[in-house]
Amino acid sequence: MPSFIDRRLNPGSKSLSNRQRFLKRARAELKRSIDRQIRTGKIADVDGEHVVPIPLDGTGEPSFRHTPDEGRRQGVLPGNREFVPGDRIPKPPGGGGQGGRGGNASDSGESEDDFNFVLTREEVLDLFFEDLELPDMVKLYLKENAAKKPRRAGFSTAGSPANINVGRTMRGSLGRRIALRRPRLSEIEALENEIAALEAMAKPSPANLALQEDLRTRCEALKRRRKLVSFVDPIDVRYNRFEQTPVPNASAVMFCLMDVSGSMGEREKDLAKRFFMLLHLFLKRRYHRTEIVFIRHTHEAKEVDENTFFYSTESGGTVVSTALDEMLRIIKARYPANEWNIYAAQASDGDNMPNDCARCIALLQERVMQLCQYYAYVEIIDARESSIFANTDNGTALWQAYRMVADTWTNFQMARVARPADIYTVFRSLFARRAAIRAGA
Amino acid sequence: MSHLFEGPDWTFDKIAAAYDAMAPVALDDLRLDIYPNQIEVISSEQMLDAYSSVGMPLMYQHWSFGKHFLREEYRYRKGRRGLAYELVINSNPCITYLMEENTMALQALVIAHAAFGHNHFFKNNYLFRQWTDASAILGYLEFAKRFIAQCEERHGPAAVERVLDSAHALMEQGIFRYRRPPRPSQEALRRRERARREHEERSFRELDRTVPRPRKTAQENEPVPEWPAQAEIKLPEENLLYFLEKNSPVLEEWQREILRIVRVIAQYFYPQRQTKVMNEGCATFVHYHMMNALFDRGLVPEGAMLEILQNHTNVVLQPAFDDPRSQGINPYALGFEMMQDIKRICEKPTNEDRDWFPALAGSGDWRAALLDAWANYRDESFILQFLSPSLIRKLRLFVLSDDADETQYEVASIHNERGYENIRTVLAASYDIAARPDIQAVDADMMGDRQLRLNHMVHEGRLLDEETRDLVLTHIRRLWGYDVSLADIDAETGETLDEWEADPG
What we know:
The structure holds two protein chains of two kinds. Helices cover about 40% and strands about 20% of the residues of chain A. By secondary structure, chain A is α/β, with parallel strands linked by helices. In chain A, the strands form three sheets. Chain A has a six-stranded mixed beta sheet, with helices on both faces. A two-stranded antiparallel ribbon of chain A has the order 2-5. In chain A, a hairpin with a 3-residue loop joins β9 and β10. The longest helix of chain A is centred in the middle third of the chain and has 23 residues. Chain A is flat and about 125 Å long. In chain B, about 50% of the residues lie in helices and about 10% in strands. Chain B has 20 helices and nine strands. In chain B, a hairpin with a 4-residue loop joins β4 and β5. The chains are: A alpha/beta, B alpha/beta. At the A-B interface, β1, α1, β3, β4 and β5 of A face α1, β1, α2, α3 and α7 of B.
């Protein structure tokens, strides 16, 4: 009779660790592959699973094998229809590679065919945001109502029965029993057997009777002692102790500021959207809770929902400072700076009312930058202009103005974007680790 | 008599009932001799897990298994490949995994195939009896897994990975093809490991570590007494892993142990690789016979039988060479057809069969003939002995010659009177595992520069693939610690064709 075992309930993911080892090993190449996909694909794709080809570098498993390009071999194939001995069949083009099939059946090594595999969202983002970091200033202010989480913290002598630690308890019990010399059951039984043997004697001599009496007293004493020294005493009992530790409630808010005046067309908006999406994903990885506020502006600014932000057009002039005003108002109303990590990203084509730039600088320098963890300004330029603006010194009115802010605040970063392919590089350069920036400078 | 089961759903009770009905067919009718069975039901994910760790229920951890897992998983998800319905492990008790998705009919088929067919083959084939120890393998794997995990803790995962990478590259060369090495028992292994560790712990003194030491060069670093003396090195040696494990001047004890683990596992799979056709043929023949026997007794409903037959035909499908599905010779098909053929020759021989198989033809007792074949042959000798002209005609086999210098293949033999012998010989040779690259360690100058020399015997001008050759040589060099060279030697003339140095990497 066979034994039947239902293994389906066994914990799964036995290969998880092997999978991670493999990803670690293939990291560099996977990263290149993902970068390429993201650069060419849609931005929304970042936030999902990715199919990537299995990299070959560093993950090959070489072994000695024969090359199909040399030597003579014979092989047997099934299904002959019209061949007779001596027939010659042209080899398929592309060298003898496929010809190996006609060759030695046991010679076919493992072929590295083009297989792909699926990376989970987490793995993609890990690779994607590797060596990026949020500029130093992660605030971890605890909110009043910070959540608490039990954490193991040793053992205690009091607790609820559900938390009894049996191992510890029995250790204490054993030690105490040894120290207090609790008689074993076998000792008592040995005495009782002796007594029984003596009692069974037909005619006990007086000496025997005395001995019997003596044994009885000893036996009684042992039994009494056994009762006094209990097997498990309340002082042995240990409980697992849990401590309530507050969980840092780190939350971030991200302000997306965009110019939606007539000069911002579909293309510009799309580029801006890509940038905002990346930033959002990035923040989501770092904080438990991320909120996004969309502020669009023409000559006046308004907080809108995401759809309106990206897809509805509005006409009007361009006054950037209105957006900053709106942002400050919202921060004051909803996101006190001591509780929230505030990030802002602004996308614009660089247009601004000439007399507004000074006001923008003042607002940023005196108020906004003191509240923000980080402020990224992305200027979207025409692909044709990208060569003109290769130098950071010249640029639009807004660019010139923001340069002054960037000089004073290290957490103010600005960059120009002309093509979708630039977004990722710009994003990386904005958030690259500090050390990397210094090395690059 | 009522059916054993109805409908597609299975339960453990139904499976047990089916097993009980099958056992007499297997044991009394076919006279199979099997290890006790242990039948385990697993999910598809667990099947993928098992796939990627070379089919074993427990295995040490290595990234290459993760790679295989990803590949299998992707193919499975894309529907490009179905999973095997079953997986069977050569152990005592013999473990058979059934997939939970299988229908009851499939479960019955799989039990007949694996729990009886493969099981009998594992227990009785001479290669398995000679080379593997079914009762020890699970214990050994457990030891291996624990040992490697401990090494990772002690020496860091990266160091362990390097050794494993190099050892895996030499797995093909880590096999004794002709002799069986003396192998200590599991207990002895564990004792040795314990003694080793106790020694380390006794001789470890925290204070010593704070004493500054002169920087060691690679050469001073080696424990002097561990060098094998020149006289102790036995050459030539075809098992390179064994050679390196015993003789490498630079490996530490735990690294040698890892080489041993990889070598033992490679050796364990050696019989399976030599008996693919026979093993699958045996299992397929057994399930076909058993399911038909049960059906004839009215135990299997017709619907289930149709499902079983459909699966059976898929398994033994042999597409022609120019069919897009073709992957060469299907071992299931070849093995099954040959065994059916043996049965036919025993029962209804033709005159041709009497010429070719005088001892077998008309003997009537095909059960004994098959039991004998299963026990005493491997793929190469089995084909050489039993591939009949009628089967060659049925499969329309032909021999193709491939000379790399020519632009055309040549048809050497076809299924006619003159071709039978050659087809048989070539097909048998293609299953000869010795046709793999033949590489031996021939010289290690322990007194001088300690260069290790390897020879590759070149048969029929078949050279090694350059890229993988260089990579593997680098791995060997890493394990040997000193220069390594490989010479291509023509097997017929004995002249050296070329010589390659290992890149230090």
